[in-house]
Amino acid sequence: MNILAWNCQGLGAALTVQNLKEVCFRKKPQLVFVMESKQKARVVRKIRRRCGFTQEWIVDPIGYSGGLALWWSEDITVNILFSSQNIIHTSILSGNFDTPDYVSFIYSPPGEEERNMCWQEIRRIGRNISGSWLCLGDFTIFYPKTRRVGASRDLGVKS
């Protein structure tokens, strides 16, 4: 099963929508998880159709912050078990693909207090899982400077 998870940082720009559509048609995912849509359901629904999907679950943003969308193809069944501003927890059934029993799509908030509440919710969900479970998305994990690798540490950029 192909799953695309993308923190698009807003579905308002034509180039973002064009790139998303191109990736969907080229890679043919069965599920697409869009984080930070920053758009109301009406706009997200229109983009979903342009990307070739018929099924959806949408969490509207609060103002211009956040927003989640989960789109899937007709050859799978997605049951939404829990949904919030940061998590869409599902069970997925498919006769054509090997799928985990449960999939949690996560967009962890940047603020420490909200992030801690999100992790508490993930732990709560996990306590009720029996079977395979996939968690994917943007987890917003911050490491101490001593554990970081990449451009900001290697190039001497202050963070």
From TrEMBL:
Protein name: Endonuclease/exonuclease/phosphatase domain-containing protein
Lineage summary: Eukaryota, Viridiplantae, Streptophyta, Embryophyta, Tracheophyta
One function term, GO molecular function aspect: catalytic activity
Species of provenance: Acacia crassicarpa
Database matches in Pfam families: Exo_endo_phos
Signal peptide: none
Residues annotated as domain Endonuclease/exonuclease/phosphatase: 5-139
Record-linked InterPro entries: Endo/exonu/phosph_ase_sf, Endo/exonuclease/phosphatase
